[in-house]
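Progress against Task 2.4 (sequence-to-structure conversion) is shown through the following example record, which the project officer requested during the mid-term review.
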Amino acid sequence: MSAAVLPAAAAPGTTEGPKHPGASSALHSLRAPVTDENFYFVMADRFSNGSTANDQGGLGPDPMVSGFDPARKGFYNGGDLAGLLNKIDYIQGLGTTSIWLTPSFKNKAVQPEDKSAGYHGYWITDFTQIDPHLGTNDELKALIDAAHARGMKVYFDIITNHTADVIGYEEGARKGYVSKDAVPYKTADGQEFDDRDYAGTGSFPELDATTSFPYKPVLDESEKDLKVPAWLNDPTLYHNRGDTTFAGEDAYYGDFFGLDDLFTEHPTVVEGMKDIYKTWIGDFGVDGFRIDTMKHVNNEFWQEFGPDVLAYAKEQGKEEFFMFGEVFDATKSFTSQFTTRNQMQAVLDFPFQDAARNFASKSQDTRNLATFFAGDDWYTDADSNVYQLPTFLGNHDMGRIGSFIAADNPGSDDAEQVARDRLAHELMYFSRGNPVIYYGDEQGFTGPGGDQDARQTLFASKVPEYLDDDLLGTDATHAQDNFNTGHPLYAKISELAALTKEHPALRDGAHQHRYASEGAGIYAFSRTDAEDQREYVVALNNSEQAQTAEVPTYIAKRNYTRIYGDAAAETKTSEDGKLTVTVPPLSAVVYESSGRIPHSKAAPGVVLQEPAAAPGDNGRLNVTADVDGSSFYEVTFEAKTAGGNWEPIGTDDTAPYQVFHDVAGFDAGTAVEYRATVLDNGGHTATSQTRSANVPAPVLTLQKPEEGSSVKGMVELSATADPEKASHSVSFERSVAGGEWTAVGSDASSPVYSATDDVSSLADGTEVKYRASMSGPGFTVASGVRTVTVGDAPQPDSVTVAGSLNQAMGCAEAWQPACTQAMMALDPADNIWRLTVDLPAGKYEYKAALNGGWDENYGDGGQFNGPNLVLDHPGGPVTFRYDNGTHVLSAVYASQQPGAVAAAGSMNSELGCTADWEPACDQAQLVLDPADLVWKLSVPDLPAGSYEFKAALNRSWDVSYGAGGASPGANIAFEHDGGPVTFRYDHFNHVITAG
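Structure tokens generated for the chain above:
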């Protein structure tokens, strides 16, 4: 899992290690100890209240002190570890093998700025103690012991990125992010430095809280020793740069909603976090960790933390200890970097969640699912692969699968929604990975969204927002306990767990794509255990009609027996090995071969293709082997550099056979040699010819400014490099009005390189081009060119929503760019063009046509002459929105708007509110204008002053937007001379303004 070729070592499940430096390896595809778990992911506070004595956490009855209020979704509701222990039979009855708990350490009970409580566990103050609201350390030990006695494991959700919000700044609370380029870190003696130069080295400069950071960290006297262990109270061990916008550099360095962001590049933090979590393994017997916010921590931290903690666990006899991280992203080329380059065992399979929803809930083309599984080899390396990943359908952040199904299928009845829910679980249990059940999904829980709206209690709730939720497959409500083992979804999940336990190949057998229909219909794959060699064929139908398909298999003229689903009990493959299956609508069937796959008589031929840079990750080379024949094969790939030995870099057991070799640790231009060895199911081997490739040069991408944008004053330039290295230094240049390229500035501060350019002396309308360049060992590269125009973007004379919907708007015919009924109006307040029309239900295509013709038009994504946009319209009013700065045309609905929007800030008392920063104050509420879907509040006479404000949605701080539309974002500063002012909020981009 390292960037360079690893030393040769026999892995679990291998047939043999390399015999000598020149001998080819013929290995089995890796099956790590954890490829057959069934996880139950539970938030202790929302599961079962086993003891009311701990409800207030020993902090008294005031909810704003104790955090306990069972009638509010953002506060502790009363669940605890005793409740989990009391209901352990219920959990085990689902077929659960591992209980995964959200963070259970002592939290800051209430963060007043958020007006909510730490029931979720992500505001830790004491990493050594169970939160008193949930119980005691002894009760945790009792739960772990009880689970172990039943053959189950217990996993902790852990945090290394941040702690509770305890640190403030002299400059004010929750400030906007300050980049490393604007204000670099300084040593205690005042020398500027880049922390990335020290990350992973074991050394770090001495820091001073008063001089080293862009903001001066301060601690309230009552909280200066609040955190445990004591080293967490040192403010120099935090980044201290202000709130993150979750993008670019600040995704690594910024505070999450004010949470104190740890300086994970610092060796004291690395060692301290390792010590904390080793204690929970050694003293309590915890079996594994889910790691929160993994993508927001630097790579070097994981490269030390993962291997060291895993080695310690194994020293404690935890041979199956397992860690997986949260990398909230649906791109395999990115998520897989944490298991390859960063040496972690696994990540949560967010790409699977997206694919499963698209298949089961949205009934998208099944070929999309085939494409999805074809990318599994991104995770294959010498000591990990896709079979280790936990798969899931929804969670506490994004929302529940039941909620997605209801939203994706408006007007559908309960029977259809339950069927789609079952189909999603069938896909998850029968395909590769470790399935995760989010507590409550087995009872048909839904909810209107994610976060707090997806955290209902299984015990009877008093939360008004939960009481009106619909539950799938039952007449029950949240006003009663929901531990119904007879619920159809509970029964289905139990059945799936039992079936996959009886047939373990369905859990960790090779997953081979077999068939995908065009459009909605059947997706089929097979699962085969390398030792047993018995083939299982799984066919799932995501259409609303029965479907039949001829599914290829490994075995000709062989009987297959149905072991799951409603289909023919027996069927037989044809002479060419195809199995005819008929699958009922929105369901699955599984067939098992009556015998084993016939052994090959000789190894098939294997040919290595030319290795090439992997699309999506320039730090990896895609190495692919073509294998003759169509039986069960496993292909081991090896690599070596000049003067080195052949070393395994991964084994693939499904066609197409490939690996994505991580070469980011080599200098550009380094020659790497590859070969592949195929192992057939008869034990025969054959080795390919060798192929060589050179490590590609980094790719430099200019991120800012936006192409075609308009600029004034100081222009921000930024670039990123793929792969990223702390040694990179990037230079920026500009060309004015087609003139010579001249230097703007340079930056060596990773991971985002930036500079600023002053264009205030250039005349409006001047065209300026920008580019970035970089040199290093073996390469000199340049980015693409971005072109901008100085001054306000010149607006066109007209913008038309031109498309197949024009006749419904009153135009003479479709696709009429000159039709006045389809022309938009420019709002001078924000320079956005808008048009609201009432359209009949239907599927439409359209584009933005400028100046009444087709010479200049923009399609999907704001692309010039781009593809048509598609509108699947339910009928009724729709507002079209066009931004000439980005050329993006969008359709928005009143139904997509929040229930309320407040201009919450330091001016609220002047508006007549009882206090400032009051999102529920009536006088601060904006009103939605149905003509343009912009929220507005006009204040006739606001006193002169310096104010700060944000947009707070739905009369609370649960969702808020600050500067630039970021959530929660920095406060927006507003200097007012006195008199009238209008606040405007656009929910499309979340930008709130005052003017």
